[in-house]
Structures are given as C-alpha cells and as structure tokens.
Amino acid sequence: MASKTGSAFDWKVWMVIAIVASSVIGFSAGYVLGGAQKRVILSIVDDYGRTVELKGVPQRIVSAAPSPTEILFAVGAGAQVVGVDNYSDYPAEAKSLPQIGSYTLNIEVIMSLKPDLIVCSDLVPTLQLDQLEAQGIPYFIFATRTMEDVIKDLRLAGSLTGHSLEAESVVAGLQARVNAVTNKTLAVSVEKPRTYIEYYPLWTYGPGSFGDDLIRLAGGTNIASNASNEYPELTPEFIIAQNPEVIVYTVGPMTMTVAADFAAREHWDSIYAVSHNKIYSLDDNLMSRYGPRVVDGLEQLAEIIHPELFP
Prior knowledge:
Layout (H helix, E strand, L loop, with lengths): L1 H4 L2 H17 L4 E6 L4 E7 L5 E4 L6 E3 L2 H9 L6 E4 L22 H6 L4 E5 L4 H9 L4 E4 L4 H15 L2 H22 L8 E5 L11 H8 L3 E2 L13 H7 L3 E6 L7 H6 L7 H4 L3 E5 L1 H4 L5 H12 L6
Parallel strand pairs: 4-5, 4-6, 6-7, 8-9, 8-10, 10-11
Antiparallel strand pairs: 1-2, 2-3
Helix pairs in contact: 2-6, 3-6, 6-7, 7-13
C-alpha cells in the first residue's frame, strides 16, 4: 500500500486522522477491508450528501472549479492536482497545469490526464460529471455557503487527500483570524450598518449566500437579506428605498464599475452611502471563491463597514 499512497508512516497517520475526523467534524469516513489484497476503500460524503468511494488516497486529482483548486493547494495537496479549470489562477502553481474547460468540461482532456478523482463546485454541470463517473472517475462536490462551511470543506479536503494534519493547521490559523474580527463586529453594542454589495450592476447576495454570511460576520446588515433567492437582481427603487449606509462593489476581470458610477445613477444621490462617499471596492475573488482567501475578504469588508473598530 505504501508504494501507491506515500510512505507507510504517512498512510497510517492519515488513516487514523481521517477516522477520528469522521466523529469530530460531522462527515462519514469509513475504511472497508476486503478481498485477497486487503484493498482499502475510503468512503466520504460530499457537500451534496453523496457518498464517494475511493480506492485509497487519490494521487491524480482534476479540479473543475477555482474554489476547490485553492482549497486543495491550501491543505498541501497541490502536488496531487494534475489538471484545473480555465479560471483556476491561484495559487501561481495552478496556472501552469493543463486546463480542462470551465462550465463545459473537456471530457477528452480529462480522460487523458487519467485522474482518480474530480473535485468541483456546485456550478459544474452534473451531466458531464455523471458521464465521467460512468467511466470510473468519481467526483466530489464542494458547495460552500457560509464561513463555517469553508472550515468544514478544508477539513474534508484534508481527509480526502491524506493531508488532515496540514488542514487542521490551516483551519486553526483561519479560525483565529475570523474570531479576531467577529469578537469586535458581532459585539452587541456595535451597530450593524445597512450594507449593499454589488457584484454586477444591480445584482447582489441574498439570503443563504456566502456574501450574505460575510456581511453578517463583518458587522453589517444586508439590504437584500429578505430577497427571494441567493443571488437576486434588485431594482433601483428597492435599493434607494433601503438607503444603504455602505456600498461595496466587487472588482474582477468582467467588472466595469467604478465608484463614480453610483452617483451618476438616477436618484442615487439621495442614498446615504452615495451622499457620504461610503462607496468601496473589493476584489471579487475574495467574495466569490470560497477557499481560504475569503478570510482576507472578511477582514477587508469588516474594515470597510467598521473602520472605527480597526484603526
């Protein structure tokens, strides 16, 4: 077994950590011994409640979305990643790997990489994933919605790839940083300013989305917290009526918005955030990629909403 999964010591340590983690962090991880060769099967439940079975620690992983790519590298499994989607550009090492498409996967390229596992977000079309699974390549879905889920998924990735110790170290550091923010922002005495985050003109984060959770943790009140879906398109009239005290717009490759655009919108000069120049930008990757860097996003958003708490 050691020749396939690393040193015998690493393999045994990984098995023990994964088994312990199954009772600690709330997912199922089991090991079944059977057959003449005592084959080890790892059974682990993904964020969609699917039980994924693997014949040992995967050594050739294809990541079909940027968030799981960042998670895998963060827990020390970067050397096991053999292919990534077209948008995986962080960390720098990911950019040199073969690309396998994005929302539409290149099945031929994926098959040529001979992966033993595909990891993805819930935006990847399951029809193509099912086709690959039918050819013997299992897939694992990360579907993060909250900061708590990020912590959970880092631990999942550690157990999935044989890097539980590294994952726990990453989690400890991130949790300490989150606590340093929320100990201030979530204090009862701290006001929670009305906050509007725009990732595309008039599109924002609604209830159940990661952006909604970040606004809460950063000490704000999401003006779209009662919207009908996770990523609603709001009307100008609704936003004006909500009168946000803070406006944040995300900046990425597809972003054309600048702060001056908000003042130019009809009747927006009556909004508190506009008239008081409380308009800020934030890197879109820190809001939309649900890996370790979201803590950077939380820290920056908290400083934007509550500059008085972070002098």
